[in-house]
């Protein structure tokens, strides 16, 4: 039960920060998305995000900074194994499953439901 609570605390905190930014600044959701992914890359490359992942597991890896963290870790691993070419291939290899899932499920939702513009 403690794992679920820690994941909720970390994931919820990330969402609260995003909501506060949307409510109190002129940042658009796109700006926040890019900022969170970039922050995840930076913190992942510096091994700071590892602490959040160890504490909050899925609560830290599922939100947007977790995607950036995955990009950074996969790129670092690939650079260590293959050299500079790994800088171009590591992020794609490390996040291919998540990207593929987003495309497949997005397509399924588009086929099943009729999207409406606002």
What is the gist of this entry?
The chain is mostly helical and 118 residues long.
Name the poorly predicted regions: none
User: What summary fits the major beta sheet?
Assistant: none
Number of strands: 0
Order of helices and strands: HHHHHH
Please work out how many helical segments DSSP would assign. 6
Rg, Cα atoms, Å: 16 Å
Our count of domains comes out at 1
Please estimate the helix content.
over 70%
Which overall shape is indicated by the principal axes computed on the Cα atoms?
globular
Strand content: under 5%
Structural class: mainly alpha
Task: For the record, give the distance between the C-alpha atoms at the N and C termini, rounded to a whole number.
Answer: 40 Å
Residue-averaged pLDDT: 91
């Amino acid at each position: 039960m403690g794992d679920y609570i820690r994941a909720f605390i970390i994931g919820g905190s990330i969402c609260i920060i995003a909501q506060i930014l949307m409510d109190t600044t002129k940042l658009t959701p796109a700006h926040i998305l890019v900022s969170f992914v970039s922050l995840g890359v930076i913190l992942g490359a510096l091994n700071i995000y590892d602490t959040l992942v160890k504490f909050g597991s899925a609560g830290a890896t599922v939100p947007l900074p977790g995607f950036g963290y995955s990009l950074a870790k996969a790129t670092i691993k690939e650079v260590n194994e293959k050299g500079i070419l790994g800088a171009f291939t590591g992020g794609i290899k490390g996040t291919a499953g998540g990207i593929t899932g987003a495309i497949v499920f997005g397509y399924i939702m588009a086929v099943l439901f009729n999207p409406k513009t606002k």
